[in-house]
Fold each of these.
Amino acid sequence: MNKFQTILIIATLFMLSCNQAPPPAPHGPLPSERQLAWHDLEFYAFIHFNMNTFTNMEWGMGDEKPEWFNPTELDTRQWARVAKEAGMKGIIITAKHHDGFCLWPSAYTEHSVKNSPWRNGNGDLLRELSDACKEYGLKFGVYLSPWDRNHADYGKPEYLDYFRNQLRELLTNYGEVFEVWFDGANGGTGYYGGANENRKIDNRTYYQWDTVFKIVRELQPMACIFSDGGPDVRWVGNEEGWARPTNWSLLKRDDFAPGIAENLEHLRAGQEDGTHWLPAEVDVSIRPGWYYHPYEDHKVKTLPQLLDIYYHSVGRNSSLLLNFPVDTRGLIHENDVDAIMKLAEALKADFAKDLAAGQKISATNVRENSRKFREANVIDGKPDTYWATDDGTVEASLTVEFSQPTTFNRFLAQEYIPLGQRVRKFRIEAMVDGAWQTLAEETTIGYKRILRLPTVTASKLRFSIDDAKACPVISNIQVFNAPKVLEAPIVRRNQAGEVTLLTGEEGVEVYYTTDGTTPGTSSARYTAPFILDSKGVVSAIAVDPHSGQSGPVTRQTFDIPSTNWVLLGEPGQNQRAEAPFDGNPATALTITAKLPYDVIIDLGENYSIKGFNYLPNQGRAVNGIIDRYEFRISDNLRTWGKPVSAGEFSNIRNSPVLQYISFEPVKGRYVKLTAVSTVDNQERISISGFNVVTE
Ligand code: FUL
């Protein structure tokens, strides 16, 4: 044996011994195979489309007629194409919502598509959607409401057979199903085959969940079951689109069940001492409602809102189930398509280039010094290799040394969850100009954690685990430099004449002008609200100080300020008398009064008035929206004369946006907006914004 051979043998023996270092023992509850597959999906679509789409409701009563279900251009391939292009991995459809109408021709009820005019009663929406999902390489999932306001037997044992039979149909006839969604909602009242009564059930016992879950396991062994308490995927405890930053994929599962979600905080954050692996799914709609309402066409979530939702769900160890309320044509509305494509583009840009890949990396501890668990595993792009530390070493850090100073603002980490969720506390630091700066101090990681950090240019990044339930096992870290979101700033002026400029993004600078010129970095920089106590135009622009890039310009014209305006009369049960003038669309004045009702405003001095603006309540419910009005002007408050304008705010029910009314100029100090009628015909009117237009 020569020297070379001896070295080779020693090296081989050394490597073999290293590779024999045992992996860390699994810690705590572990994910099942089906849960592991589900974690990888991360982002998928919800579709709320059913009878409610045609009745303009969120919860139907159960007495709707199958004839009303009649989409004119239904195209499930459009849904699948949008989902695919948005980077989503699957679609879950409301096969049956609380009103009981079935999107498939169930053999067990007449209350389904088979008695609708759609496709002459020969349609099967689940067939069309499952086919479209296959064509586009998407997973297919079903929402089946346990509560059924149509069925005569609901609340009795007989209904359970019906429910189970329907579940069997859904899980047998449409190929592979990745998730079955059991909604816990139950409002009690309903049509119930004509009984029209309140039927209360005990959520924990009535449905005999064990039997239901067995059916799912038998027919679709890889399908995850979602509900308030799993058993595979848990609700996140809100419908707004966020999980807590601290989010354990663990829960004391037996304390929960579908419809049993008393402790929302545990659903939002999980439980460190949970007994089962039960990760959170964030369900949220791209509009305020789950179902399509034309009056929400202008309320599709903006890019900053959608990005917040993504980072507060996928970025916080949850999956994101984002809902499209498909419209009465049977299509995802253009506004929703625009919004989701903007999100997809932004996410692509955010994660375009992993700046940690290929860099030098070092660790303070590597399990038994073994190559198998070395630090480089976290940047090798392989999900099944990981860095682990010695047993008992729960504090350890990884340092990425960049080959040159690198600008970044995102950090992504993943634990190797087949061995359990372990990290309790971690920290991110950056070496900037030779000194360590702390960028973030955080808690859990789990399947995936993504941090939005201040933008820094650093020579090194240090990821320190400060506490863990057992030795940390990290499969992946990534570093990105996301471009800033440079939307046109929102410009608002309140009653004091204070102008506020808002952007949905931290770390961007805003520049503005008030003389009509186009703003740029040599214009005034916005640092605090400023006063505009006259007519004027505010133009604003957002700029990324690092890249120098800027977004589109906002130009907002303001008429006379409302500083001295007074709402007159006896407003009775007025709430928020200042709301119509505060410039904030989220606040509204609500007046409870019989109609017609006069809203009188003293403008403080005489003006030549040539129009007015009315912004109805922007809340989720259609509430006190004036549809027929009269508008009068007076200079003495006693004589009003004929209306200077009267009529209807056209289509305001469906489109409750800012209304612009103009007329021939009239001089006066007092204006009277008479609410002749409202869309909901209640003794209530609401005003979110009001303005006059002067000459
Ligand atoms: C809730 C339901 O009541 C809503 O209508 C919607 O389906 C949402 C996803 O779940 O509990």
Amino acid sequence: MAVRHLIDILELSTDEITELLDCADDIIAHPENYREKCRYKKLATLFFEPSTRTRLSFEAAMMELGGNVLGFSEAASSSSAKGESVSDTVAVVSGYADIIAMRHPKEGAPLVASMKSSVPIINAGDGGHNHPTQTLTDLLTIRREKGRLDNMTIGLCGDLKFGRTVHSLIAAMARYSGIKFVLISPEELKLPDYVRTDHIESKGIPYEETTSLESVMPELDILYMTRVQRERFFNEEDYLRLKDSYILTPDKIRNAKDDLSILHPLPRVNEISTAIDDDSRACYFRQAAYGKYIRMALILKLLKEAGSEL
Ligand code: NCD
């Protein structure tokens, strides 16, 4: 039987996404029903790049399902430091664990790994490319905050070039009706052409590109702020010049909708002033919390599809 992985968010149909979000809602409402679901199951977290939320929420997710976790949190503490290939690492770890979450600085590494794995591989972020489980987290947040995933204007602001969470979120939201994207970034950090053409233009979805956050603020239902991805820059000077392009302060949301939802995958550096944190429109800490529940739902789905009786 072919094992089902999750490398790209579009591998999930919209019905499957709805089922995952429903499952996460049910876990939030009735956590006690899930405490034993993954007894004796093991999740391996193979993180070749730094992470706080993604790795810890995956681990907390498996623990709350009654399972166990193993893994590493930096390439330096794994055999990749000795020159082992990702494929070999995964071929070995798939003999130790039932499911693997993997983050890697190289685009496509989890896809390559999935070809050598006998257990499900979940892409937990590959370079500047994709981050499907952050997108599931974002979708759960939007649905819980707004009660819907369609008919809204979504502003994405900051590093749209290297921000993998932005690329996956656009691919996912483009499948719902009545969506408009507002792409807010400095010229140098605009959305890559392939994301714009494949997911927005090819579907005839309305969008606008701008460098000015203030001018579009009143029309937004969602504002998705992002960090400038320092680790993907070729030189420090460019990073220093661009890093504070957008800083959200209470002043800047004065003309925003009362029911604007402000999301951020976190970590934040300077993009959102801490003075915004107590505004009811700030959703980013709730968003981080939802990450655990949607990952519980995803682990259950992939293990079931791999033949586990849960
Ligand atoms: C994001 C990531 O790693 O891509 N963080 C996350 O997973 N919550 C965003 C970022 O690092 O800026």
